[in-house]
Amino acid sequence: MRPPGSGDITVTQANRKCSAVTGSTRKIKDNAADWHNLMVRWESLNEDGFNIAGNLVAIRLTRSQSDQLVVVDESSSPSSAPSQQTGGAAELHDECCKLQDVIDRMVVVVKKMERLTASQQGFQDLENFQFGLEGRKCPLFHSWTGKHFNESSCVLLDSFSQELKLKQTILQELAHTATSDLCMVYLSCWLHQPFITPQTRLTLEALLLETGHHPL
Fold it and tell me: pTM of the entire structure?
């Protein structure tokens, strides 16, 4: 699919410089689509991770309750305690491994976002070289310059990088948290993703609108 308005261009003195970067225009539009696809991928992983984290919390709290019952009843059935604890630990370990796998895939997503941001920085550097600090006279699409695209990429990358750090912390804490209230806080943080704000989603939507992926 070709970008809107990317048909044959009649080169005049007025648009000569703008027409020289049609290759960059195509790549920027592809980058915008990649941002969208990566965000969709992230949301899918976030849902998978939330389900696993919920299982992990359920096992952890059940094991905590069982440990308390064992302390009370160990005199009546001492032989059953070790097997119950071993089984719970194995389940806990399995869920932790599953959640770590989700986070590893999130790391891959963020690394791809870093490459997109580096690519966008390259376009801005090229624009600065071609047009100077005052920037281009005509926009690449509707109204944005290379600087706008670069700033949007940086906003998106920062949001997802911070969210990834939070999820890594949640994984470290969940398996060792026996308090149900604190577990619910961690689960809520995982689900609602406080670092991926409405502004983050608006930034992506503005990027898609500007590049023609979504109609104005």
Answer: 0.79
